[in-house]
Each structure stands twice: as structure tokens, then as C-alpha cells.
Amino acid sequence: MDFSFNIKKTKFDDKYNPSTDTRLTTNFANLARGEHRQENLQNVLQMIDRRFNSLAGWDNHKADRYSVELEIVSVEMHLDSNGNRKVFPLIEVLNTSIADKTRGEHIAGIVGNNFSSYVRDYDFSVLLLNQNQNHEKFRVPERFGDLHGNLFKAFIHSDIYKRNFGKMPVICLSVSSNRTYRKTGNYHPVLGSEYEQTEFSLTDQYFGKMGMKVRYFMPPYAAAPLAFYFFGDLLSDYSNLELIGTISTMESFQKIYRPEIYNANSPAAECYQPSLKHKDYSLTRIVYDREERGRLAIEQGKFAEEHFIRPYQDILERWSAHSPV
After folding, report:
1. Most buried residue, 65, 193, 210, 250, by most Cβ within 10 Å?
2. Higher-confidence residue: 109 or 312?
């Protein structure tokens, strides 16, 4: 099997309109639809900027020095098999950059942040769901996440990734509502208080197949810890401004997606189990359809099954079994 990757970049601002081939479950696409689409986008971007300036308070007395600029990075896989060429949408992530209005310059941020994937939709919303139908005990399919992990590693080690991005990605997601997190004595001036838990969630294990480690931090003034998935050394490989770009972006999105956890009216305790059944939280003024996202995840997982997994299953399994990364 011969394959290559292609990258498309789309600016995420208040004029953003999802393209016809974007993943509809992508959270930014959800925010950019409907009657209040432009107001939604403007409010999201303002939330991100305010949070960034609150964390980057040095030499920033009016809390307006910085602005975060975002672009959606869409990765396509070009697959050649027996003379047939197939283009399949693989993943979407966000790339951040920081505008320093005092110095009049742009600072590169971190790529990754949000993470969307058709194959991941298939794994969690089709394969895992089918595996556990009519079974009382939860079961994880054999080699769950292996193919997705090898595809992701092939992309980040590809020439096209290296030409476009100077550092390895960092993905920032919600902590799991199935785990209990305990505060440690470790504190970072930007990432905040570190939390630990004794057993990796299925999402943690899935990202482990992608070659990524995980640490959990609750940034200053936050309501709950975030899960940071990364390569290398999270605390040493990235500058404070790079980390703040990721925190401000993803914490703002999580306040919209999971207000029960990230817009709670009281902060996480030292021993903390997140819950989407929590009642003491505030809503943002941003419209987000969480039910639609869950429904579309299943639909797009089935799309991946029909157009990618089934037609190329034998080829993909052989390649994954001998993947060099």
C-alpha cells in the first residue's frame, strides 16, 4: 500500500463557514451553523482572548496585549491500491498563533489542541458500540486503536508535517467522568496544579496507541483539570505563551461543550471525579448542540466503515501490523 498526506488550512474567525467536506461533528463546525453563527464565533474568540490575557498578565496591565489566531488543519490521506487512488479525510486539528499587539509581531503556537478523526469515530461509535451490544460486562475489541494510532504516527513523522510545523502536537481534552483525579503537590505557573489518577481511561489508552503520554493540570482560576496528550516533555518543550494559547483555546471550548465540568460554579476539589450530571454550573451565551454531535459521530463512524475500513481492511491491517513508526 502506498499513501501520502495532504494538508488544508482554513482560518477560524467570525467569518468561518464549514466547507462541504468538513467533518460535521467537528466542534467548530457545530458552532458555525444556525441563526446565531456569527455571534457564536465572535463570543468564542473573545472568550479565548480574555482567558489568554488573564494567564499572560506580565507586562499586560490592561489585559489586552495578546490575541489568539486559529486555523483548522484538515489532513487527507491519499491511498493508492492496485492502481486505484482514494482520498480519505483523516483528521482535523487546530493550530494556534499569538498576535502580540505591543511588539507588533506574531508568535507561533502549538498545533493539535482539538482532535477530530473519522477513524476514531468508527472505533468508538461503531466498533466499540457493536462489541458491547447485549453484553453486561464492558469489553474492548482486540487491537483497539492500533490502526488509528499507526496512521496518526505516520502523519506526524511525515515530511509534510515537518514542513508545516516546528514542534510535535499537543492535544487538550476533557478529563474522564469514569476516573477519580487527585491533586499532587506539583505546580506549574501556567499549567497550574497537577492531578493524577491510578488507572488510564480508554481515551488515555487510545492516545497511548498514538504514541502520546498524558498529564492532567488545572490552570489558575480554572474549574477543573484538563488532560494534555503530548510527546517529549510537556513542561520543557513549549514556552509559556505556547502553552497559554492551548489552555485558553481548549478551556474556552470545554466551557461550551461540557459546562457541567468546566463552567462549574465551584472549582474541583483535591479529590475530584468529573460528572456531566453536575447541576451547579453556568451556561455560556454560545449555542452548541451536544445531542447533534453524538448522533453525527455514529453517522460519520459508519461513513468511515463504508468508505475506508471495509474496502481496505486487509491492506490496512497488513500495513498496520508492520508499521515502522
Report:
1. 250
2. 109
